[in-house]
Design a protein that fits this description.
The protein has helices spanning 2-14, 19-59, 64-70, 73-78, 80-93, 98-132, 142-165, 170-177, 181-187, 189-203, 248-251, 258-262, 284-290, 294-313, 329-343, 378-395, and strands at 212-215, 220-227, 231-236, 241-245, 255-256, 266-274, 354-357, 365-373. It is an alpha+beta fold and 420 residues long. Among the domains are: 2-133, no CATH class; 266-399, no CATH class.
């Protein structure tokens, strides 16, 4: 290259061109030659590398090399050779132009940093796409991990570029900007919060891709489809997408249904409110009528026998029902509901089954059903729960009980002004 420089310069001077002008013309010619050489080498290198990677990927059984090509990793790596060539030959082209050489040299250094970031990004994207193909990692927030590495890479790259432009060493530049750390923290507040939150979410295994979460503050109720450094995307059951800041997962309360999905059943917890004035003791006549209800007939017989034995042994005066021990219609209904659940084919018998009475309220006495359906799918779960309560609501009148509901126009009978 130096021989070409001297040769062109001698020709220009021999033609009677001024030395200064000859120097400029010589520099421009060499620059054009260098650009042509760099372009040709870059083109050839890209073609060779991409062809080699493609042949290797076609023979390889793993998908990793195919993903490398998709993310343009060979193309980015191919730029290294022409870049190094340009970096080495630039001083020769600008031999007589020290200031211009310094500017171009800095520009090439900046491009070298950017090229390194391109290669790092393509490699990290390749790892991200490859990890997502692995079954054991499909529910992990891979995007978040990759973005953390990319954040650090771009941060260091940006500092390196600024250090190059300001003619300072990297360490010296870091020390200089330390005083501006408060401003940097303010600018990158959300990114820093998201970074910390991503680490905590991952370490504590709070959320995985595919989890069903409910986040009332943000109106999210659906499956997590993406977790990255700054946001979590939730596809709601109406197919809309809700975007939640990642740091909200550790600062606010949300519900993750993964425990239910991994368990053997989905909880049914709902109450029927019984009117207080419909509760009563059961007489002998009542007990004989209720003994016809098959699923509690044996319980009623045994229980009634124990009550009679107690009252007889303690000489209780049963001319008044209040005296001694007695069965009530609400207690019998509660036993009926529990037995019905135990016999229901869609209820998991290995998990808690209970029909319990809660504290009385202004809306009556709640009889709460607590059980777990074997089928956890949403539509089937709703069908099972509806089937259970359809039956229990219809069964309430058979125990001479009434369900509470607020008065409506049907509860009032109009009085005629002409009635006597």
């Amino acid at each position: 290259m130096r021989k070409i420089t001297h040769f062109l310069f001698d020709i220009l001077v021999s033609k009677g061109i001024d030395v200064t002008m000859a120097t400029y013309i010589n520099m421009f010619v060499l620059l054009i030659i260098l650009l042509i050489i760099v372009f040709i080498i870059d083109f050839i290198t890209r073609k060779i590398l991409i062809a080699a990677f493609s042949r290797f990927a076609a023979k390889s059984k793993t998908s990793f090399d195919d993903i490398l090509i998709t993310n343009k990793t060979p193309r980015n790596i191919a730029h290294i050779i022409p870049f190094l060539l340009a970096f080495e030959l630039t001083p020769i082209v600008f031999t007589d132009f020290g200031a211009l050489e310094s500017i171009v040299h800095k520009g090439l250094q900046v491009f070298g940093v950017i090229l390194t970031l391109w290669i790092a990004r393509s490699l990290l994207n390749t790892l991200k796409d490859f990890f997502k193909t692995l079954p054991r990692l499909k529910d992990k927030p891979i995007d978040s991990y990759i973005q953390v590495f990319m954040f650090f890479a771009w941060f260091i790259g940006l500092l390196s570029i600024l250090a190059i432009v300001t003619d300072r060493s990297f360490v010296e530049f870091i020390t200089t900007i330390g005083a501006a750390s408060a401003i940097i923290i303010l600018i990158f507040r959300d990114t820093i919060l998201g970074f910390v939150a991503s680490i905590q979410v991952s370490i504590n295994d709070m959320v995985r891709i595919g989890d069903w979460i409910t986040f009332e503050k943000y109106g999210a109720d659906g499956d997590v489809v993406e977790i990255n450094l700054s946001t979590v995307k939730v596809q709601n059951f109406d197919k809309t997408i809700t975007t939640i800041p990642t740091y909200a997962l550790i600062s606010d309360s949300f519900k993750n249904w993964r425990g239910m999905e991994n368990s053997d059943g989905r909880r049914i917890k709902r109450a029927l409110n019984i009117k207080l004035n419909s509760v009563k003791y059961l007489s002998k006549t009542d007990l004989e009528a209720y003994s016809k209800i098959e699923i509690i007939s044996s319980y009623l017989e045994n229980r009634n026998q124990k009550v009679d034995n107690y009252n007889t042994s303690n000489s209780i005066d049963k001319s008044l029902l209040l005296n001694g021990r007695n069965l009530t219609n609400i207690g019998l209904f509660r036993k009926y509901a529990e037995t019905y659940l135990q016999n229901h084919s869609a209820i998991n018998k290995d998990m808690m089954i209970m029909a319990r009475q809660l504290a009385p309220t202004s809306q009556g006495i709640p009889i709460e059903i607590y059980a777990f359906s074997s089928d956890k799918r949403w539509a089937e779960y709703e069908y099972i729960m509806a089937d259970i309560f359809d039956h229990l609501i219809a069964a309430v009148p058979y125990f001479e009980l009434e369900l509470f509901e607020l008065p409506n126009s049907g509860n009032f009978k109009p009085t005629s002004v002409f009635s006597s």
